[in-house]
Write a structure and sequence with these properties.
Blueprint lengths: L1 H11 L14 H16 L16 H17 L2 H14 L22 H11 L2 H16 L17 E3 H17 L6 H16 E2 L4 E2 L2 E3 L19 H14 L10 H17 L7 E2 L12 E2 H17 L6 H15 L1 E3 L5 E3 L2 E2 L14 H6 L2 E2 L3 H14 L22 E3 L10 H6 L10 E5 L2 E4 L2 E3 L6 E5 L5 E5 L16 E3 L5 E3 L2 E4 L10 E3 L4 E4 L2 E3 L5 E3 L5 E5 L2 E4 L4 E3 L2 E5 L2 E4 L4 E5 L9 E4 L2 E4 L7 E3 L7 E5 L2 E2 L21 E5 L16 E2 L2 H4 L4 H5 L10
Parallel strand pairs: 11-12, 12-15, 13-16, 14-17, 15-18, 16-19, 17-20, 18-21, 19-22, 20-23, 21-24, 22-25, 23-26, 24-27, 25-28, 26-29, 27-30, 28-31, 29-32, 30-33, 31-34, 33-35, 35-36
Antiparallel strand pairs: 1-4, 2-3, 5-6, 7-8, 9-10
Length: about 700
Amino acid sequence: MKNIFNCLLFIIHCSLVLAVTGCTSSVGTSWAVRMAQSEMQRAPEAWQLDFQKKLKWDYTFGLEGQAFIQLSEATGDAKYFDYIETYADTMINDNGEIRTYKLSNYNLDHLNPGKMLFALYDKTHKEKYKKALVLLRSQLRTQPRTGEGGFWHKFRYPHQMWLDGLYMGAPFYAQSIGFFNEPYSLYDDVIDQFVIVARRTYDPATGLFRHAYDESRAQRWADPVTGQSSYAWGRSMGWFAMALVDVLDYIPAEHSRRHELITVLNTVAGGVKKYQDISGVWYQIMDLGGHEKNYLEATSSCMFAYMLLKATHKGYIDTLYRETAIKAYEGILNTFVKTDESGAVHLTQCCAVAGLGGDPYRDGSYDYYMNEPVRSNDAKGVGPFIMASLWYDSLPPTAAVIPCEAKSDGEVADLVVATDGTGNFRTIQEAVNSVRNYRPEKRTVILVKKGVYKEKLVIPASQTNISLLGEDVNQTIITWNDHAKINNMGTFRTYTVLVQGEGFIAENITFENNAEPLGQAVAVHVEADRVIFRNCRLLGNQDTLFTGTDGSRQYYAHCYIEGTTDFIFGPATAWFEECTIHSKKNSYVTAASTAAGREFGYVFNRCTLTAAAGIDSVHLGRPWRPHAAVVFMHCTLGIHIVPAGWDNWRNPDNEKTARYAEYKNTGPGAPVAGRVGWSRQLTDAKAATYTLDNIFTRNDKWEIKN
């Protein structure tokens, strides 16, 4: 009976967790089919896609058309191919002339539908498709260019290169070279398009790319010095990301400059990974998550998921991005994909359109991007969602993010907790208490289903190697409200969760102390060794996270941690990898109490420090004990971080012993000119010693991979 229950459980949750090693999955294909069929219901004729009321040759048909053709190839079902073929036959006559298309507009957007004609011609051999391809290819021969050789986005947008345009024109251009057997040297022209726009739109402060570039600097939206627009709009980078991963399909493997595209792709992937929200998806303005009106946006998120999944499968980017890719796809399912009563699938929270210039004029301001209409089932999200779904199934089993060891009998979890009684237990504490004591060689996995668990939870020292796997980080919540002023409770008994059992792992769970800000109120208190928190939210005010016990090793990856004063404190050795550290008050982030003989205390690597509105004076830390050790490396520090950086806690003697350092941080709070003289910047040689292996591996050889 238990095996049957867990088998059903796996099916229910297969959209959240991939199959164990050796098992195959069609989760993505299933979602792709459901989305495509829903689109065909919404648009019985393919020319009606993307809410069209009349015939139009438009880039959205090329995007969604490609997705349908790929779905047909993946499933062997011809109806998806036939559906798109009807659009092409409606738009193209026997002479290869295309309805509504005008070459004289020199609009790169109008090349994008041409990409599906290659596949249509290859299968049907209809000569009109080839004639249409000849017509579209001719546009690029006379397309206006910038002084550096970059294609204008449109004739009516002179001297401008938009990231969007790379997706519209470059893959078509590259595929055309091979299709028409054109000179090999033209591949250099394709590569130049990416190199030029990357150089002209890159923002070194964020690692992202701005929406567009005006060579003339004449546009009101263009910076008078750089020519760049003001913001990294998510979908513009999404177009660029997809362009890079698609154009590599057509650049010969032996081409001497192919590596330049892969280098740009890795830069894009790095920025995308850096600004991925804890939910797995991305904001409309990528680097301003949490700002007023900014919202999690579906089309860009689907584009990034597609790029990451395809690029990792192809080996263009490091395999470490697989976790980011899976988190992105599953975040899309959790955040944006909804099913109505009829069973139709909808993609919500899609920005309908955004551009620059034109009439009425679009000024590229923050308010402009925030006020463009938002709708469901926009083709610019649906197409990438279908393609990302297909690549999701292509990931090898070893790429699956499994927060617990796979069982030989295929079970996902040993125990299930659900507030509605559908699991083995209704409370997490009951499940923990049921685990046998001291099992050093066996991990017990407890699946915690969505719900609010009002518990003061203890993982006792006798319960080792327990994994708590939440069903959804935003909807699996453990909460309590003790604080230090209740009956003189003191700080260390206020915890919502106390971890004493070694080898504890938590994933996809929110840990909250929701006491009013009346004093110290700990959400998570960790005393155990070898503890991991992944993709969790730790919410509180003062003293949110207590990393207790000298010698304890703790690892926090892709977590969101918020608080007011000293909200990460204690003596443990703790590594924070790609976490968001959010300050809710003008105060201090850390209060480490590292022991004098302990070389490493807190290490924040590739984290992003943010703050609530109006917060503008936050210190990175102050020493709770004299030998506090804290390092921020490769982090993005918000403008709320004060120039001094660090505080001595009203004791000048602490300046002689505290070990505060930084290394290659970025962001408005990162300049080191105003830092206190007793902090330091790490040398390259010293920074090289800050590795997981060096900090965490001891006699037990505990190893963690990012």
